[in-house]
Amino acid sequence: MFSFFKKTPAPAPVEAPALLPEGWVTKPAVVPAPTVAEPAPAVAPAAVAIPSAAPAVAPVAAPAPVVQPVVVAPVRAPAAAPVPLPVVAPPPSVLEGTPRQSWLNRLRAGLRKTGSSIAQVFTGTQIDDTLYEELEEALLMADAGVRATEFLLGDLKRRVKDAKAADPQAVRGLLVDGLTELLSPLEKGLEVGRHTPTVMMVVGVNGAGKTTSIGKLTRHLAQANQRVLLAAADTFRAAAREQLGVWADRAKVEIISQEGGDPAAVSFDAVSAGRARGADVVIADTAGRLPTQLHLMEELKKIKRVITKAQDSAPHEVLLVVDGNTGQNALNQVKAFDEALGLTGLIVTKLDGTAKGGVLAAIARERPIPVYFVGVGEKLEDLETFSAREFARALLE
Questions:
Q1: Assigned fold of 190-386
Q2: Rounded distance between C-alpha atoms, residue 361 and residue 142, angstroms
Q3: What average pLDDT does the segment 115-135 reach?
Q4: Which CATH architecture best describes the domain 106-185?
Q5: String of DSSP letters for 186-244
Q6: Average pLDDT over all residues of the chain
Q7: Where are the domain boundaries for CATH 3.40.50.300 in the chain?
Q8: Listed residue (361, 309, 304) closest to 330, CA to CA
Q9: Is the pLDDT of residue 202 over 90?
């Protein structure tokens, strides 16, 4: 598995991070330098493992020029090169055949409806006003929004002039660079471990894929040896509790649920239980509602206040799940929920098959809240971290 989230351990005590699946990320506060053993005044010959072919070493008064660190493998093996810490987002140049390339292929397939309409603009042979007019129309049809479209066109014209581009395909490559730059502020990794437990409150409208996204995220966290506790705070829809319970069983995590209970009370009990049981992450699922339902939005505010009473500074993440098919309506949801709750991140779902994938450009231009994850299907591996370069390539190349 590759990078999915980064884990920041609590300030004290400092312990060695748990081993995660290969390619996943933890983010220790500081990686200490290898501890070097002090040279002993006199070392018995049998205390050091030396290959049989090596000549005998006479005792020396001063420290030996090469001191064996306690973390190094036996002396017969060459010293391993330093291993750099992994990063949250993979580099743009990902090798073919890697898991990330497989994800990029699925993302490209999901965005095909959006990308094909834009790609048609670059099938001609000239760079003229007609090309820019057609590109403007294609971006607006993809729900990139007026502000983002104007920005991209102005930026593209500048890049074409600076590069002296004369081929429409070269112009498309410059548009990929411009879109990547526009989307870059949305690229941020989800951290866990800075607070114990890390409390996440997940909100969204009905049908956006909120509970499914929570289930996928829970599986990924559980597979990274994180103790997760779920709060079934969507007490209005019985199917939501059952659905979340299925995901809890699959991931083998605990769940706090009350039939017909008060959502705020369920959330409070879950956070309190998470603290008492030593959970790493507590995720509260809330009832779906439209931002125009003011009385229900007030209830979300109440849930957030009650969570803060259960643990200071919580919730540490307020995540909005939005359906990528809704286009500009998704931007309106982002604005409304952010004003009411103060969003910290987004999960954009159902990008597969949509012709409105340009909405991320609109979000980046008008309300640049980090996009932690994007989804293109129902499978566990169809929810992945957001990369601006990957998204721009999948959309336009």
A1: Rossmann fold (3.40.50)
A2: 10
A3: 87
A4: Up-down Bundle (1.20)
A5: GB---EESSSSSEEEEEEE-TTS-HHHHHHHHHHHHHHTT--EEEEE---S-HHHHHHH
A6: 78
A7: 190-386
A8: 361
A9: yes
